[in-house]
Specification:
The chain is an alpha+beta fold and about 150 residues long. Helix content is about 35%, strand content about 25%. The chain contains 4 helices and 5 strands. It has a 5-stranded mixed beta sheet. Strand 4, helix 3 and strand 5 form a beta-alpha-beta unit.
């Protein structure tokens, strides 16, 4: 499958939205439109360390990934957290997710990051089959406390 992985332009929000909504639905998450709008704006704000890459075939979006660069108390370099990854159902199983992850890894290397990491739900075994082939599983468990 011939896919281009590149940053979108600010005027492509309408192409991202169906994938974003599919991603939120997959994780049974309902975010206010204001958060969705803010997220899109952050991708294009030079003061924000939040980035997006789109997987496109011609002008059709097949998927996207959003990631964040942040400091670490354990390293001199930045770390790259791949926060969101979603591929349209019709494009799954065709290497699009792998290409998106590799593009994030390339970006992280150019920024001098010391680590690229991500998480997924325990029940997302389809994604884990890919992740197990391309990365090492951490032995950390995540806890979340509402504040």
């Amino acid at each position: 499958m011939s896919v281009s992985i590149l940053p979108p332009s600010p005027d492509e929000k309408a192409k991202w939205l169906p994938l974003w909504r599919g991603y939120l639905k997959f994780y049974k998450c309902d975010l206010p439109d204001a958060i969705t709008d803010l997220t899109w704006e952050r991708f294009f704000d030079d003061a924000e360390p939040v980035y997006i890459l789109a997987a496109k075939q011609d002008e059709t979006w097949l998927g996207f990934t959003a990631f964040v660069l942040h400091r670490s108390t354990w390293a001199e370099t930045y770390y790259c957290y791949l926060e969101d990854l979603f591929v349209a159902e019709a494009a799954r199983g065709k290497g699009v997710a792998r290409q998106l992850i590799e593009a994030v890894a390339d970006f992280a290397r150019t920024q001098g990051c010391g680590r690229l990491y991500w998480q997924t739900q325990e029940s997302n075994t389809t994604a884990q089959a890919l992740y197990d082939r391309i990365a090492a599983k951490s032995d950390f468990i995540q806890y979340v406390k509402a504040i």
